């Protein structure tokens, strides 16, 4: 918390407030070079002017534009999907959190999130999710099945292994990817607002899980609860496969073209690819 005060202010925000001198100093602190800071200051200035011109040609508030244009709306829906998935994949549920907290969730999450630093660009956001969701489904089922074992030592061992493996699968995939995906899905003019909505969705469904979990535990028991979240992982895998496009290494113009495609068109394209693979 104390280190937040040492972080440079956002240069873009400073320039929106016409504080160009402060923006240059912030960029110099971030880049470590006055020449690079001057270059980026000019680039941001040009982008802000272009955004002003675009905004003048459009009607309505920023929130209306976020959901009224197909490009922005598609980016918002996809971002909401991955944020929703981060909570309903099971990591946000109290039984999982309680077990993870007692078994070193923080250290495991840290260690196995490190590969994502490289893999998220070399492997891709979409592929990371498609690889890790089936694994999380299996490991939650293993954890749930462990509760049926009558021997206490064996039950604890199976549940512990299932939880550990679940964290290993979660950390490089659904842990970091939603925030990276949401941050780059929106165009620059709407990014601040779109990202704010995405984070709101994330914490909204976190609270939904917290409020509904006692009822789920009462109805299903601990093993049924883990099976419940395992089924959500399976459903979310299907949704991500059909509706989530890849954003790795795409320019702003390429992202505009990707998110301009209707979601059902994208889903139909993925279905056709699946049919071709099945026939082959």
From TrEMBL:
Keyword Transmembrane helix annotated: yes
Topology in the lipid bilayer: Multi-pass membrane protein
UniProt-annotated location(s): Membrane
Keyword field: Membrane, Transmembrane, Transmembrane helix, Transport
Domain (Major facilitator superfamily (MFS) profile): residue spans on this chain: 1-248
Transmembrane feature ranges: 99-117, 129-148, 154-171, 192-214, 226-244
Gene3D superfamilies referenced in this protein's UniProt entry, alphabetically: MFS general substrate transporter like domains
Family matches, as PROSITE patterns: MFS, SUGAR_TRANSPORT_1
GO cellular component, one term: membrane
A Gene Ontology molecular function term of the record: transmembrane transporter activity
Entry's family note: Belongs to the major facilitator superfamily. Sugar transporter (TC 2.A.1.1) family.
Official protein name in the record: Major facilitator superfamily (MFS) profile domain-containing protein
Species whose genome carries this gene: Fusarium duplospermum
